[in-house]
Structure formats: structure tokens, C-alpha cells
Design goal:
Layout (H helix, E strand, L loop, with lengths): L1 E2 L2 E6 L2 E2 L4 E15 L4 E15 L2 E13 L26 E8 H6 L9 E15 L6 E17 L2 E10 L8 E5 L5
């Protein structure tokens, strides 16, 4: 297979030490693949960052990912969800809301990060998936959601996120500890 791609990206986000604090980002990406299989992967990603009261940032993200084309349902392709990382903590998916603030800033009502920037956060994540059934070929429809709280730490430019995550619904098996090595969305 041969894959190409192009994207339109707009970014006015103002970055803090561990994640964006103000502004917005959006991206429209198209990635056609040719060869034994012909598919088009489309991604629409929108993110918005508000600071309603200092030092708190309300971050909202929604993303839609679709694979279309004559071979989009071919069983030789991995399910598309396997390409989407850490969007619903405890699962993988496509919509998030976070309330976050610098830990020292919560105590001082100012935007302060200190020598070791630590960002406290609470979140709610949700995603809806349409996947072809293995046996039937018919599409299965799933919604997955989770919520929790955690912290991001900027250690010399490396961002670590530690979360306590509670998945909801039939996929839930209690609380989980999530550890990520990435900046906030």
C-alpha cells in the first residue's frame, strides 16, 4: 500500500508548561491509500481553550475519524480505533473536556507553576464508534465514556500525566491508573 496525506491546520493556542491554556486549534486531514486496498482516512479535530477564571483553563476537544472507500471494511485492516491513542482515558476514543490549573496557582489564585511545573486536572471523556462486526460484517455501534482526575508534570521538558480513571458502562471494571508520556491536548 502507498499512503499520501494533506492537512489544513489552524493554531492560535497559547502554551503553558504542560498543555495549552488559551486559544484554539483545528485540523482537517485527508490521507488516501492506494495499492491492494483503496481507502480514504479523514480526520477532523477541533480544540478550544478558555480561561473563565484565573488560573483555571477549560479545555474542550472533539475529533472525528473515518475510513471510507471501496476497501474500508476489509478485514486485513486493523480497526481504526487502534490508531487513535488516549482520547478516552481507560479506552481509546474521540471527545474530551478538561478543567486544569497549575497546582500552585490553585493555592495562590494566580498562574504560578514553580520550579517543577505541576498541573492538576479533572476530566470527562466520551467516544462513539462504528466498527464492522467480525462475524456478521454489519456495523456495531459503541459508546464509551470515562471520568477522573490527575496531574501533569513537566520534568525538564518531558511531560508525564498520572490519572485515576473510572470507565463507565459495560466496559467498566473499576478504577484504573493511567500513566501517559505526552503533553495535554
Amino acid at each position: 500500500m502507498f499512503q499520501t496525506g494533506a492537512a489544513f491546520v489552524h493554531d492560535t493556542a497559547v502554551l503553558g508548561p504542560a498543555s495549552p491554556v488559551l486559544g484554539k486549534r483545528f485540523r482537517l486531514a485527508l490521507a488516501p491509500s492506494f495499492g491492494d486496498l483503496r481507502v480514504l482516512t479523514t480526520v477532523v479535530d477541533y480544540r478550544r481553550y478558555y480561561m473563565p477564571v484565573r488560573p483555571f483553563t477549560l479545555a474542550i476537544r472533539t475529533e472525528a475519524v473515518a475510513r471510507t472507500g471501496p476497501d474500508a471494511n476489509d478485514t486485513r485492516l486493523l480497526p481504526l480505533i487502534w490508531y487513535v491513542r488516549d482520547y478516552v482515558r481507560g479506552f481509546d476514543a474521540v471527545a474530551n473536556v478538561e478543567l486544569r490549573a497549575p497546582l500552585l496557582g490553585i493555592l495562590h489564585r494566580d498562574v504560578r507553576y514553580g520550579a517543577l511545573p505541576v498541573e492538576a486536572l479533572t476530566f470527562g471523556d466520551c467516544g462513539r464508534f462504528w466498527m464492522p462486526g467480525v462475524a456478521t460484517g454489519a456495523f456495531q455501534n459503541r459508546t464509551m465514556c470515562s471520568a477522573g482526575a490527575g496531574a501533569r508534570i513537566n520534568a525538564a521538558g518531558l511531560i508525564f500525566e498520572f490519572d485515576a480513571v473510572r470507565p463507565f458502562g459495560s466496559y467498566s471494571d473499576g478504577w484504573r491508573l493511567g500513566i501517559n508520556f505526552q503533553p495535554g491536548f
